[in-house]
Each structure stands twice: as structure tokens, then as C-alpha cells.
Amino acid sequence: MKDLDFMARAIELAKKGQLKVQPNPMVGCVIVKNNKIIGEGWHQEYGKNHAEINAIKSCKKKFGTNKAIKLIAGSDVYVNLEPCSIERNTPPCSNALIEYQIKKLFCGTLDPNPKINGRGIKLLRKAGIEVKVGLLKKECNELNRIFFTNQKQSRPYIILKSAQSLDGKIALKSGESSWISSPESRKNSHHIRSMVKGILVGRNTAEQDNPSLTVRLAKNELGLTKNEVLEQPVKIIIGNLKKSKKVSKIFAGKSKIIIASKQPAKKFGNIEYLEYKNKNFLKKFLQDLLDRNISSILVEGGQKTLNTFIVNNLFDELVLYTAPMFLGAKSKDAISLNAPDSIKASKKLKMVKQEKFKDDIKTTYYNTNV
Amino acid sequence: MKDLDFMARAIELAKKGQLKVQPNPMVGCVIVKNNKIIGEGWHQEYGKNHAEINAIKSCKKKFGTNKAIKLIAGSDVYVNLEPCSIERNTPPCSNALIEYQIKKLFCGTLDPNPKINGRGIKLLRKAGIEVKVGLLKKECNELNRIFFTNQKQSRPYIILKSAQSLDGKIALKSGESSWISSPESRKNSHHIRSMVKGILVGRNTAEQDNPSLTVRLAKNELGLTKNEVLEQPVKIIIGNLKKSKKVSKIFAGKSKIIIASKQPAKKFGNIEYLEYKNKNFLKKFLQDLLDRNISSILVEGGQKTLNTFIVNNLFDELVLYTAPMFLGAKSKDAISLNAPDSIKASKKLKMVKQEKFKDDIKTTYYNTNV
Description:
Chain A is 29% helix and 25% strand. Chain A contains 12 helices and 17 strands.
């Protein structure tokens, strides 16, 4: 096996933490001696051991503590992200790697946090450990898009989602919009929900659709074991939502609910009201969400809400489900923006993935101009 | 090898005729003796030998005439379409198969032409040849969608093509529409042009865009050898087009041009005017195109022309290139239809293929409700 293969394995391990590590990054770690993997681990859950510590533990479990200590000394370690150098929930990993006297560290990317960025590496080099940064850099960046966005933009990673017809419509004028996408698409959208910390809709959508805003997938569909728990995303509503019959599903269940409006800030039970008097409250609001560990949100509509995020360039990803039907020119647009002055000046996205769900297509775009 | 493998090979061979057999169907033929292929051929060009005859010829070339005659006697023959039983450009293939005393015929589909449908099979069975119909039927039908449409609908196979933004727009209000799709998409659209016998645009599009309506691909890009000639598609315009400077590109070159309008019918040089006094002339016009051996057309726009074909349910395929940009709600719709009464009543298509061309996606839909 080659360096690239070991790093690819570290990335593969990291992904196992996808549903449970936020707001932390996904991290995988592989310890190699004489071209053989002697230990591997990943960050499994927010607040629990980091990947490096779990890799050391796995080595000890396999070889016994004494032999493991001897093996790790002089080993090569592969990790997708710079080892931490600051004590937070757990002791810093850089210290452990120094203590165990590893020989060489391959790390995919530096930590984007300005307080850490390169500091862990510096510590390791100072201790005589050879460090190589940048192996599978692109893949390591891609893996932790959420974490990197949190660190660099001081806001949650934002995914906009919409369904639309071939002619870009989401509903008839009558308001009828039910099930323009296929059951397969709708199921897939629950997978997206499972990967975010919050689901956001505007007041109109909440009142019109009475959505439950929960992940409705079985544990095995999410790759979770029976004993694992999926924390439901926080339900986030923009606008002053009346606790009427209409929105009964949002208030059902125990998920945390955040409502952003002009109403005075208050908290009762699982509901928190955030108060914003300024009309341009979106940036502040997003920062407030991040402060509450909501590191990623899925914005599900309606049109006005989606428009607002796009116009303010506050999104990282757009997911479109396109159903193979025409709803007509006068039906309701899925997204409704002002026209650019020229085609050259129009907002362009990067297409990153296309998938098929029955007769629908799902296309995923990145906003590369954040 | 199994029956299915031999039929799959026949289909593979048939496809080699794709660019040159229309209005004939694509046909491939495989002759098998003792589970070994002893001859294979395909219909290579309109007016030339049919697949069965070419397969017999290839057997003779390989084994010499006398040995070939002995080998073919008692053999199994695989052909995707029912062998012809009517003398047209070439003697009927059914006769040849009887003459050469094959034992068994596997054929994928019957000939959709009501005059033939099953007649070839009947002849063969009468002569004591065992016939099995329906092997890889779905694939054989798919292969000859164009031919089947011609026979059943008495009109060309119709492909509608458009490019659009994520919000379903094709141009800014100013009319600016240049290059919303990527060079890769535009190149791919020339491959579609190469597979049809005619390219159709409305008068407005012709006058506004001054398109050349030709296939601009090198022979090797089309899989043609140096000596092969690609016949350019006929240029078809709906509406009374003035031979002004604006449309200079349409009238450049030697391709045949058909103009459908209220102008009196006339012919001069490579240009033919077809006269239609009735406003609802589309069906008659399409039949007139088929009578001129135009078995497939690509409708490239503009919006009004596309609308007309969709509203009249006169299309078999829709190809959409979607560019990753927003052009705004008030920009020009790519397709502009009336809204259905309900989502259930909306026109639904079948998604059959999605491809990627740089950041554009290309989606191909079939109209299953023809």
C-alpha cells in the first residue's frame, strides 16, 4: 500500500462519524508500521475521543499495551485533519502523538480555525516529528466542508433544497404542490435531513404545509446500529409562528425548536424564541445558530425564504429535485430572483453530483463564490 | 454463449448503421452453428443490403461459398427485427433464409409496419423454420424507436431540444441568450443533430440567431471512416422566412432546405417551399416530411415552436441541457405552457438518461403518452 491508500483509508474511517460528530469535523486516523496498518480509529461522536486516540486504543487492543507502545514508536500516522493542539473536551492529540514518539505524520489539511491553523503541526515538528501536509488535500477539504465553512464563515453550512418541475415551478397557482417529487426523492431528502443539525423553513411554509421537520428513516436505513441514537435536527422557523392547529406537527415531538422573529426573546420547554428587530438579521441569526452548535442547516423553503438566502449569497449547496412534468408558465416559481444585467453577470454554481430517483433527477450544486 | 448473448451481439451490430440507415431500421444479424458464430452482418446504409444478406456474405467470405452453404443449412439465426417479406430496394430476406435452409430463427420484434407485421414470420414457419419472437424485445424496441414511430404514427420521430437555466429560463428579457450552455453541451448537441434527418426551427429563431443548422463534428468524432460521408440533415423552417442577410448561414452550404408557410409551394435549387393554408397544419406537415424520407427531426426552438409541439403532443423525446445559473423570474421561459388543472393532470414524461457536460446536466425524457 502507498501513502495515498493509507490516507484514503483515514478518510473512509472519518466518514463513519458523519451523523454524530457535528459541530466537530470528521476525522479518521491510521497508524502504519513497516507498511502495515497497526491501528486505526475515527472520531465517533461529539465530545468523545478524537480519531488519533481511538487509533492508539485500537493498536493497544490488538497487540496489548506494551507491544503497542513499542510499535507506535517510530510509526507513520495518517490523519485527514491537523491534530488538535488545544485542550477542549479531550486532551490535545498532538501531545499524544509526541508522547508515543511517532516518526512521521501525514495530514491532509490544516485546521481552518485561525487559533489552531498550523499550530499542531508546529508542535509536532518541534518535537522532531516529520510532518507532511496536503496528501489528498482536495478530498480532505471536501470531507469537512461543513466544519471548514463553520470556521471560515462563522455560520452554519447552508444547504438549500427545492423540488421543481421541468419548467422550474413548485406549485400550481391554487397552491397545490403536493408530491410533485417521487416517493424515492422524498425518502432521499430525509437522508439529507439526517446529516444536518437544523431544518429551516419560513413561516408561510410552516403554516401552509404543516411539516413535521423530522428525519423519518429507520436506523438501518441510516447505517446506525440498534443501540445508536439519531439526534433529530433542530426545527428552525423564520417568522412569527402562531401555535395554532395548522402547525401541530412542528410542535409535536421533543425536538428543539427555534423561532426567529420580532417577538421578545424567551425560552420555554424545548422552544426558544430569538428576537431580531433589524430587517437584515440573517447574518446575526446564522451566527446565533452556530453559537448553539447548529453547524449545518437545511433550508427547505418556501420560495421567499430560498430567494432571501440566495440573494444574500448565504448558501453553500443547492439541492434540486426535478420532476418530469410541466406545471405551466403561470404556476409558482420554485425560486424567483431578479434577472442579472447580463448572462455573464448571472450567478453561476458548480454542479457536483447528479442522481436519479425513479423519474426525478437530483442535482447538487456548490456555491463556489462564498 | 447463450441465446441472449447472440441477440445482444445482433443489436450491437445493428447500431453500427445508426448514422446511415434511416428511414430504414437498424438491423443486425448473427448466424450460429454449434454454438459458434459463423457469420454476422448489419444493414449498413439505406438502399444497400439488409443485415441477413450481409451475414450470409460474411459467412461465405470466411469459409468459401460451398462450405458456407453447408454450414448455414441447419443453423440458428439471430436478428433484432422480423426479416422483410416484401421486395423493395433489395430481395426479401425471408426468402434468403428459407433458401439457405436455416433451422431456427430468433427475432427480437415483429415489423411494426401493418403490411409486414408477422408476415415474414409466417412465411418462414410455413417453410418449416422454427421461429421464436421476443428475445430481448425491450432492447430491440428501444433500438428502433425512430422506425417504430414512423410506422405507427406516420410521422418523423420528434426530438425537442432546449437549454435552460436552473430556473427554467433560456434568455434575458433583452433577448441575450448566447452560450448559456457549456461548449461541451453544445458539442454534444451536434451529436444529436448527426442522428436525425432534419433540424427544425421556427422563423423567429432563424432570424434572431442566424443558425447554420449543420452537424459540425469531424468524421472521427462521429465514428465514421475517412471515406464515409455524413449526409447533413435537412434544414426545416416553419414560417415565412425572408432570404435576407440575417439568415445567411441557413442558406449557406448545399443541404436541402424545407420552408413550411402560407407561401405557394415551389422548388428551386436545394430549397423547397411547402404550402399550408390551415393554421393546424402540423400533422399534415409532419407526414409530408416523412414522405420525403425525413424519418427523424430535432426541434431546436424557439420557445413558441417547442410549445406548439408539446401542446399538440407531437414529440417522442425531450432533451434538456440545464446550465448551473439563475436568469431570474422575469427572463424568458425555455418552454411556456398553460398550467394543468391539477398536478395529477399535468403532463408527465419518463426520465431515461442523465449525463454531465462540464457543469451542465443533460436529461433525456421520453413521451410515453404518444
